């Protein structure tokens, strides 16, 4: 039995919860330290992660401290998914998993994040900036919907970390779009995407994290 | 001798050139197909990449078609860098390479790209949006400068694909900041970053690609 990994997290930010889902799926023991945003961009946290963001993990079993959720996921599967239950060791499949993981990191997370910024946090209302990111988010739905045509999962015949990496940002859609969320008509406009996201949401590990996140949001 | 890889590229976009630098460093033969932006988000290109973006590679030696520059870089080093000249096979070093590559993909590229968008392409002038991204770009300089304190390269004692992945977006700083570029005072404010970027720019492979890009920009 391995010693628990420490996961530095935040009550509402989607990226640490993405890592928590992978830890749950892999049944790797972990403890969560919830950080306040105000403490991230200064010492001592900056010594763990010069980027001043969560997630960060510390793994006492290997001694590693690592940040960037995509890199943490690669570390976790290479270290703990020894039977490749959530990835592939064969080529080209393992590179397709990497491709979708990088698309999540560079194409989904940043655009969803900027959409949230301009709809919820920016100092002034900028309708054309908000529209830009809402349109980009719809493009992400379009790309995933197209890639999932006739398929249950992004790579091969099983759920991999590539699929799982998208779900915590997808959970943010109602927050990002607010009153505009209904007009997305996800089930009608992006049926493959919608069914895939529903499959992900029904997984016990994803359900547990959704519940943990709701509880953490209420108490932090 | 391996058959040349086809690199789908664009004359000015930094991400395909990032891959070209890795191909040059690894001395992997390749041919470049320059695409017009207008042809990316429709068939037949969408059949290669549902995301409708470059880079995409086709490797006749393995039969793979792959997109997302970060995933392409991982594929290239795992397939062609058999002596790990530009990466590590040891732990934790190989995970640190992954960490910085993911930071480039999720933390540098997207913010630099949005900075370019609001300074150069957006339909209206939005000073507070532009300022947001200029501030985020300065944070990226700050993070890299801090991480490079007392070091020549991001991971260990050699130049890896993690270092190389940043340089084509860094080349865009004058374009992004325009008249504001001088006020960045990169050498004074971020000396470790500045020296590291200079080391990268002096590499023959990077010099060649900078020249190729200038020529492609002039003729496409």
From TrEMBL, chains A, B:
The UniProt keyword set, sorted, is:
Transferase
Record's Pfam families? GST_C, GST_N
Q: Where is the GST N-terminal domain?
A: 3-84
InterPro entries attached here? Glutathione-S-Trfase_C-like, Glutathione-S-Trfase_C_sf, Glutathione_S-Trfase, Glutathione_S-Trfase_N, GST_C, Thioredoxin-like_sf
Q: Name one GO molecular function term.
A: transferase activity
* GST C-terminal domain span: 90-220
Recorded hits in PROSITE patterns, A to Z, give: GST_CTER (PS50405), GST_NTER (PS50404)
**The keyword Ion transport belongs to this UniProt entry's keyword annotation:** no
**Which family is annotated?**
Belongs to the GST superfamily.
State the name under which the record lists this protein.
Answer: Glutathione S-transferase-like protein
**What organism is listed for this UniProt entry?**
Lachnellula occidentalis
């Amino acid at each position: 039995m391995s010693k628990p990994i420490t996961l530095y997290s935040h009550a509402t930010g989607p990226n640490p919860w993405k890592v928590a889902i992978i830890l749950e799926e892999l049944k790797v023991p972990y403890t969560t330290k919830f950080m306040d945003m105000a403490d991230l961009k200064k010492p001592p946290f900056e010594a763990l992660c010069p980027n001043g963001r969560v997630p960060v993990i510390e793994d006492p079993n290997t001694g590693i401290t690592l940040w960037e959720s995509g890199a943490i996921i690669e570390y976790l599967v290479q270290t703990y998914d020894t039977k490749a239950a959530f990835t592939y060791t064969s080529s080209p499949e393992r590179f397709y998993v990497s491709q979708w993981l990088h698309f999540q990191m560079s194409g989904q997370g940043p655009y969803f994040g900027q959409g949230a910024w301009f709809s919820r946090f920016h100092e002034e209302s900028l309708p054309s900036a908000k529209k830009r990111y809402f349109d980009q988010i719809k493009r992400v739905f379009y790309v995933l919907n197209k890639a999932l045509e006739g398929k249950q999962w992004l790579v091969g015949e099983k759920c991999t970390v590539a699929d799982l990496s998208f779900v915590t940002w997808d959970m943010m859609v109602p927050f990002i779009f607010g009153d505009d969320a209904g007009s997305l008509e996800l089930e009608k406009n992006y049926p493959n995407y919608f069914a895939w996201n529903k499959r992900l949401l029904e997984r016990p590990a994803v359900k547990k994290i959704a519940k943990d996140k709701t509880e953490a949001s209420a108490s932090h």
